[in-house]
Amino acid sequence: MHEQTLAIHAGYEKDAQGTMAVPIYQTTAYEFRDTEHAANLFELKELGNIYTRLMNPTTDVFEKRFAALEQGAGGVGTASGMSAIFYAIANVAEAGDNIIVAKQVYGGTTTLTGHTIKRFGIETRYFDVNNPSELESLIDEKTKIILFESITNPSIDVADFDAIVAIANQHNIITCVDNTVATPIFCKPLTLGCDVVVHSASKYTTGQGLAIGGIVVEREGLVEKIKNNPRYAHFNEPDESYHGLIYSNLPLPLFTLRIRLALLRDLGAAPSPFNSWLYIQGLETLPLRMKQHANSALTIATYLENHPKVKKVNYPGLVSNANYTLAQKYFPKGQSGLLSFEVETLEEARAIADGTKIFKVVVNIGDSKSIITHPASTTHQQLSNQELIDAGIPAGLIRLSVGLEDPEDLIADLEKALG
Q: Which of 26, 97, 151, 379 is the right S-S partner for 93, CB 3.0 to 4.6 Å?
């Protein structure tokens, strides 16, 4: 099926009531037929619902539908985008290991990987997403995952998937892509050779800023990379916390299964059924909304590029942009609704943000309402001056999340604020 059809129908088999809309199964637990049935579920002899921290019928539809849009083998929902990123890392790395992360990532990802992860005994090494060859000097036998964003937030760079995947595969390392900004409508990293995709479902998936959540999706055939791979011994050895289960022997998507059975079980950052239901509503219109977001963003980027007060515009849909060639290669249908532009000073940037009326000063993206943010003083405030430079965030940078309003009204709003 085509993605617009998948977005509406994938993953839902109607129950006995025949409801057209996916029901909200707002429950904590589930009744078993008998003790044998319960034991079989816990031993994975049968598949079914055990407890909503692990699985839920509404969340199951969300997971299957999102995995179908990403053309993945399976997915697991989480309580937030940050918990999705943490689970992807914790699923493969332990004390003494290292991970490699792009310098140009969301501020929360930078603080998670640069500070919080240190307390788990995991080292983070950083590479410039615009120079993938740096990876070679960072990789050793303890490297467990390479994490980057398909379209970076807020520098709006485009990752060279082919170059990164080639190096990762040469060393048999898992690649993980945060595809939140591009969404599966504009980019499907798993079809480009990447192994795992993470998303903040709080953004374009809901589309209206209604709920916090995330998801992890793995590609078909990932078991072939993990099985007998010494980097991932814990997937190939008995898990004593689960009756000696060996994940790489199971005929199931093993990466997301281990997140479900080990990390969701023990850490518990699971989505609520109601939030999963909200994501399902958002997915139904995602293909249509993303086209409008991208069309309006290109119109506004073109306007800003010609404004005398704007030093630089970061949007890969512009022919003048350094990422244009990669964007045409990897995102031929559109480059999302996120863009950034640079003015001379921090003070000027903040005055522009404060001067808009339709654009609201909010630290979110992917909303139907347009949003303006000054990253250096908000989302990336915890970064040092050098980290800001490395992440492509000068003091005068302004990020726009272009919503679904008429672009002419948005341009008029920016025109007044720019003065």
A: 97
Q: Does 219 fall in a domain?
A: yes
Rounded CA-CA distance 259/247 in Å is 11
Per DSSP bridges, beta strands 371-373 and 360-361 are parallel
Phi and psi at residue 124, to the nearest 5°: -110, 130
Q: What is the pTM of this model?
A: 0.95
User: What is the spatial distance between Cα 289 and Cα 207, in angstroms, rounded to a whole number?
Assistant: 8
Confidence (pLDDT) at 300: 98
The CATH number of the domain holding residue 376 is 3.90.1150.10
- For residue 123, count CB atoms less than 10 angstroms from its CB and return exposed for 0-12, middle for 13-18, buried for 19 or more: middle
Angle between helices 81-90 and 107-114 (to 10 degrees): 30
- Say yes or no: 167 and 240 in one domain: yes
Q: Express each pLDDT in 6-62 by its tens digit.
A: 999 999 998 888 999 999 999 999 999 999 999 999 888 898 999 999 999 999 999
Residues 251 and 304 in one domain: no
β-bridge mates for residue 149, sequence order: 178
Q: At what angle do helices 346-355 and 407-418 cross, to 10 degrees?
A: 130
Nearest partner of 164 among 176, 179, 152, judged by Cα:
176
Average pLDDT in the chain: 95
Alpha-carbon gap, residue 325 to 377, rounded angstroms: 31
Among 215, 239, 274, the domain-final residue is: 274
Q: What is the pLDDT of residue 126?
A: 97
SS3 of 363, please?
A: coil
Is the predicted pLDDT of residue 388 greater than 90, yes or no? no
Using CA atoms, how far residue 127 sits from 23, 99, 234, 275, 321, in Å, is: 44, 11, 27, 35, 21
Radius of gyration for the chain, computed over Cα atoms and rounded to the nearest angstrom: 22
